[in-house]
User: Which sequence fits this backbone?
C-alpha cells in the first residue's frame, strides 16, 4: 500500500470492489431512472431507481420469488425466470408512469445472452424504452426455456399470460 502525504485512500465501496463510480456517474448524468438488475444463485432482483440529492429512491421493484404468485413452479434463477421478472418489473413501471430507463448491470461482465439481458428483454417486451444493442439479447427459444424442457416452455407461456392479465 502506498504511503506518504500525497496518497489518498479510495472510497470504501471502491476498495471493497462493490462500486464503479465512473460507471455510476455516467448513468446518473442521463437523468433517467436506472433499471438495476442483480442476480444471486437463487433469485433475480430488478429495481427501477431514481437518484435524488444524497440518496437513491426505489420507484418499482420485482423479484423472481414473486413469480410463484403467477403459478411459476420452476427455478427462480434461470433465464426464463429472469425474463418473467423483467416483464413483471416493466409492467409495474408502466403502471407508475415510467416509460424510459437505462440499464444498470453493476459489476457484471456483459455477456451475450446472459440472464441480465433476458430481464432486459422482458422489460422491453413489457413496453419500457431502454437503450440497448439487439445483438446482446437472448434468443426467444432460450428465453422460453426450450433448452430446459417442454414443461418449462408451457409454464413460461402460462405465467406470461397471467402477468399480462394482472397488470
Assistant:
Amino acid at each position: 500500500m502506498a504511503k506518504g502525504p500525497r496518497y489518498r485512500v479510495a472510497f470504501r465501496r471502491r476498495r471493497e470492489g462493490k462500486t464503479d463510480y465512473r460507471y455510476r456517474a455516467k448513468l446518473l448524468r442521463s437523468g433517467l431512472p436506472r433499471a438495476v438488475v442483480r442476480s444471486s444463485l437463487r433469485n433475480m432482483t430488478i429495481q427501477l431507481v431514481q437518484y435524488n440529492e444524497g440518496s437513491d429512491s426505489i420507484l418499482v421493484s420485482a423479484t423472481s420469488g414473486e413469480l410463484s404468485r403467477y403459478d411459476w413452479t420452476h427455478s427462480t434463477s434461470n433465464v426464463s425466470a429472469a425474463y418473467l421478472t423483467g416483464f413483471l418489473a416493466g409492467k409495474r413501471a408502466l403502471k407508475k408512469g415510467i416509460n424510459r430507463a437505462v440499464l444498470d448491470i453493476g459489476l457484471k461482465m456483459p455477456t451475450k445472452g446472459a440472464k441480465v439481458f433476458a430481464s432486459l428483454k422482458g422489460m422491453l417486451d413489457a413496453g419500457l424504452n431502454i437503450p440497448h444493442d439487439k445483438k446482446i439479447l437472448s434468443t426467444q427459444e432460450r428465453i422460453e426455456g426450450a433448452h430446459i424442457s417442454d414443461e418449462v416452455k408451457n409454464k413460461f407461456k402460462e405465467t406470461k399470460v397471467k402477468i399480462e392479465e394482472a397488470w
